[in-house]
Amino acid sequence: MDKITYRIKRFDGTREWFQEYTFPYEKNKTVLWGLIKIRDEQDPTLNFTSACRSAICGSCGVRVNGNAALACKTSLDELLEIYQTSTLTIEPLSNYRVIRDLVVDWEPKLERMKEVKPWLIASEEKDLSLGFIQSEEEFHKISNPTDCILCGCCVSECTQHSTNSQGFYEPFIFTKSYRFTIDSRDNAPSQHLTPSLEKGGLWKCVRCMQCVTKCPKGVRPADHISGLRKESMGLGHQQNKGARHAYAFYDDIRKTGRLNEMTLPLKTEGLTKTLSRRIPLALRLLRKGKLNPLHFPRPVQGIEGVRKIYRLVQKEERS
Q1: What residues of the chain score a pLDDT lower than 50?
Q2: How many CA atoms lie within 13 Å of 174's alpha carbon, on the beta-carbon side?
Q3: In 16, 82, 123, 314, which residue has its Cα 20 to 30 A from 186's Cα atom?
Q4: What residue ranges define each of the domains in the chain, with the CATH number in brackets?
Q5: How far apart are CA 2 and CA 19, in angstroms?
Q6: 17 — phi, psi (to 5°)?
Q7: Which residues is 68 bridged to in the sheet?
Q8: pLDDT digits over 281-310, tens only?
Q9: pLDDT tens-place string over residues 142-200
């Protein structure tokens, strides 16, 4: 391959368009190398952000052929092999306000991140001059969320955030919330967790796992959301709809090994809300033969094995 083409989405503040740039292809280069080459040799008006070129600062996040990626870390050789084309479409990250070309506005999201207080809150009784000693095991609990570099790739691909941006935190915010909630050196876990529960839509994650698969640093926001849910119930937040739904799943699987779809909404939302919200849906399901109000699941074959797993997990948690 002698030539490569970048088809870049441009934006000047009012108008959007795609512009193509073709330049000589070189092996062992990255997406960022191509952007810099275009700006230096063809079009100095092209706007994008970058700094460290070492996958540390997180500033060069873009979308390549519809997938969020860190431009300085993404190999051109691998992309051309995957897509079997010499033309790559480069766009700004999704779920951000675009300022110009590939530059997006981070300020509103960083303001939201402040709500979870992403810093250590020490005890007022602690002598800070003594420092904070942490065991290796305690460190490993926070090592993965600490790897987040705020590149924004998780936000760009988050399906829940795409449709509910105001009612659902950006995945990296949940990661920051979790990181300080479980930090052994922190003295106020509720101050980090409660905003995720009350403002961030903690129980609204649909587990699409895009935040995990697209993260260039191997951070796992979906797991951190699950961790925050567990921590929230441990701190006494058990009467919200999300927690009740989780306990309903837990109880059904322990009893029979399968869900009871007749009682699940009752356990989750209560009788009054179920009657007011779910009756139309239930009637449609009945008409289609998808719901049998007289059916109550019997325990599956091997249910004792399922219950043994429950007992082992409970024993492990107690120890």
Answers
A1: none
A2: 32
A3: 314
A4: 3-104 (3.10.20.30), 107-234 (1.10.1060.10), 249-318 (no CATH)
A5: 20
A6: -165, 165
A7: 63
A8: 888 888 888 777 777 788 999 999 999 999
A9: 999 999 999 999 999 999 999 998 999 999 999 999 999 999 999 999 999 999 999 99
DSSP string, 162-192: HH-TTTS--HHHHHHHHHHHS-TT-S-HHHH
Tokens of 162: 């795409």
Please report, as a single letter, which amino acid is at residue 309. Answer: I
Distance CA 265, CA 172 (A): 31
In angstroms, rounded to a whole number, what is the distance separating the alpha carbons of residues 56 and 149?
Answer: 6
Say which residue the tokens 């905003």 belong to.
195
- Nearest 5°: CA angle at 48, between 45 and 50? 130
> Tokens standing for 27?
């092996």
> Considering the entire predicted model, what is its pTM?
0.89
Q: Side chain identity at 298, as an amino acid letter?
A: R
